[in-house]
Amino acid sequence: MGKANKSPSPAVAKEGDYSALRELFRPHVESFDYFLDKGLDEMIESIRPMVIRDPNSSNTLKIILEKGHVLSPMRGARPGVLPIYPQECRQARISYHGEFKVEVCFQYNEGAQIRHTFNFGHLPIMLMSKLCHLRGADPHKLVFHGEEATEMGGYFICGGMERLVRILVLQKRNYPMGLVRNSFLKRGAGYTDKAVVIRCVQRDQSSVTIKLYYILNGSARLGFWLGGREFLLPVGIVLKALIDASDREIFTSLTCCYSDKHGRGKGVVSTQLIGERAQIVLDEVRNLSILTRTQCLVHIGQYFRSVMEGFENDDYITVAEAVLKDYIFVHLENNHDKFNLLIFMLQKLYALVDQTASPDNPDALQYQEALLPGHLFTVFLKDRLQEWLRKSKRLILEEAAKNKGFDLGNALEIRKFLTKYTTSVGRAVESMIKVGNVNSRSGLDLPQREGMTIHAERLNFHRYISHFRSVHRGSAFAKMRTTSVRKLLPESWGFLCPVHTPDGEPCGLLNHMTSTCRVSSFYNSEGVIKNFGEMKKLLSAELVRVGMNPVLPKIEQTGPPEVLHVHLDGCILGTIASAMIEKAVNYLRTLKLLAHSGIPEDLEVGYVPPSFNGAFPGLYLFTNPARFVRPVRNLFILSDGKQSIELIGPFEQAFMEIRCPDGGDGGRQEPFPATHEEIHPTAILSVVANLTPWSDHNQSPRNMYQCQMAKQTMGFCGQALKFRTDVKAFHLQVHIPNIVWMNFHLERMLLLQCYHTQVMTWRMP
């Protein structure tokens, strides 16, 4: 056994020593940084202006939110005051927050806009984010301000308590999933247990889930939630309302994926029944005496004008266009893109019904992503601002009804009503962080409303660091009798640790990311915000170069297995011949390895090959944030003779050939040679699981127990113990030197040897 070198003191460690530790906290900090950099502006821009009509006259007042400002935490509101630091907030039992202001414009009768600045209270500031006073501080400055020399932030301080937003598992965004659930039968008479579900996410991270239900008569219904109620529309009306397409064009688009010459061969996803079903979809619209796009828009407008807030006095076509924009495939801005995606979802739904395509597993990590703190912060703040607009409108209308002489053009009077509920916005956000409950009328399309935050305990460093690496499936699943959601599935390999999960009720629901797993963000490796519009143009151009046919402006006339659709973040870019698609996949992976190609390094290239009754084939590309990614070694040799490290996601991993360096080919056949290789055998374990001595000699349950014991034992809760205000803390006065260093380099990088714990372990003979 080699002798371990003495580790450096954290107080004198260099900045570079903390890079590996900082990587573990990066998803939390970067998501909040994006909220400050760009997310706040995009969120405010997406809020529809509030129009107030005077009940006593024809005058109107439009209230527009323009720009938001969040300030750093200060001791007071007066200019020139000193900054306040986190340790002072802990000791004084106050919150570490910054002032939140929004520029609001008044427009009276379409006249000139009058700009006012409103104070909406204070928003909690995440430690080590761009507004934190400790950002970029060296270890000496951190110790001076009563913090750990290794303080990495990633949490909030509310009422003196350290609160952490828990990473939750969500359905993968902008990907249509084929599901079979008995709950779909409860939608009404004639509904089946089959549907295609897609969770559409806008730029401001708010989402709308669309469900395409299969009906027994062969048609389908498009469902979405509005105001706490699910609305269902015949799919034919939505198709004709999106673009001005004839019945023949819709019929041809739906049936292009079927051909008699293929029979039931490999990659065939349709049967001859699709022609009859397409005719039923069109007949439903014709039976309602609806023939044109304008008539479809009027029909939708009549149905939704009473429930669309702010559109009570608009014409039916305006209401229908607002419904299509705000609730139908909100991640797409072009109606042609929405039309093509809806056609694709119908084809996948019919393939699911005919059993030519298998259903997707919502419990597999392949179809999941993460809910990051900054994203939750953004969508909840948007909901609170919209609620403030609704309350203000109600107050103004009540005053106008009581006072006949009330003038909407009096800016001072309007400002008085608007300032009545402004500070409630900041209080609601702080309450959400402090308590963990999301109070919203709409539900924000989230899987749960309680337990969103937890206390960042510091019983020991292992427990503390595990909070930031934990991924929770959702509190609703803890009450289910089924165990399917708790199973360890092969799709989680390399992303979620197979042994680091607690025993008891949360077993299998509370998992932890592996030591090498990362979460994609809005920032590239150089810290610059990604330009997704430029990425789309560049990827489209590169795909056309290798044989892709763009889908716009014409409607595609063929489908699988001859050609496969190419998706980019839920938008169909075009089609590519099945014989050329593997060449395109290899070309994209080569571009990922090149430093200056412009292709993002975390691009997920999910090629689902044609199969017999397997997953619906296609090429699915993802560049969006909140995806789990991990590094593997690409065996492709570059021109400089080196092998490069490639970031892959769980969706593409399910269809890749990856070998283990210490396990040979593992029975792999020659037609499927390995294209990638694992970097290290213990990369499948979490940070805490990596520190278990002789884990390969332990029984499998013993490794699970060891992870829990390491987080419950006595030890150093921190180096700044005398400044801590925790209710419960452990501190070892005398510790025993380590008997063995397991993965010493990992411990040295993460400085875990500075936080000793009293742990017992077992070794099998």
Describe this structure in words.
The protein has 765 residues and is an alpha+beta fold. The chain folds into three domains: 10-164 and 372-439, no CATH class; 177-368, RNA polymerase Rpb2, domain 2 (Dna-directed Rna Polymerase Ii 140kd Polypeptide, Chain: B, domain 3); 523-656, Hypothetical Protein Ta0175, Chain: A, domain 2, CATH 3.90.1070. It is built from 18 helices and 26 strands. The strands form six sheets. A five-stranded antiparallel β-sheet has the order 8-9-10-11-12. Strands 17, 23, 24, 25 and 26 form a five-stranded mixed β-sheet that branches. A five-stranded mixed β-sheet has the order 18-20-19-22-21, sandwiched between helices. Strand 11 and strand 12 form a beta hairpin. Helix 5 (247-255) packs antiparallel against helix 6 and helix 5 (247-255) packs across helix 9 (335-353). The longest helix is centred in the middle third of the chain and has 30 residues, at 373-402. The radius of gyration is 28 Å and the shape is globular. The two termini are 18 Å apart.
Question: How are the elements arranged and paired?
Answer:
Elements: H1 19-46, E1 50-53, E2 60-70, H2 86-92, E3 97-108, E4 113-124, H3 139-144, E5 156-158, E6 161-165, E7 167-171, E8 177-180, E9 191-201, E10 207-215, E11 220-226, E12 229-234, H4 235-242, H5 247-255, H6 273-287, H7 293-304, H8 316-327, H9 335-353, E13 368-371, H10 373-402, H11 411-418, H12 423-435, E14 453-455, H13 461-469, E15 470-472, E16 510-512, E17 518-519, H14 532-545, E18 549-550, E19 563-568, E20 571-577, H15 581-593, E21 604-608, E22 618-622, E23 628-637, E24 643-648, H16 650-653, E25 658-659, E26 676-677, H17 700-712, H18 744-750
Helix pairs in contact: 1-10, 4-7, 5-6, 5-9, 7-8, 10-12
Domain DNA-directed RNA polymerase subunit 2 hybrid-binding: 688-742
Protein name: DNA-directed RNA polymerase
Keywords: DNA-directed RNA polymerase, Metal-binding, Nucleotidyltransferase, Nucleus, Transcription, Transferase, Zinc, Zinc-finger
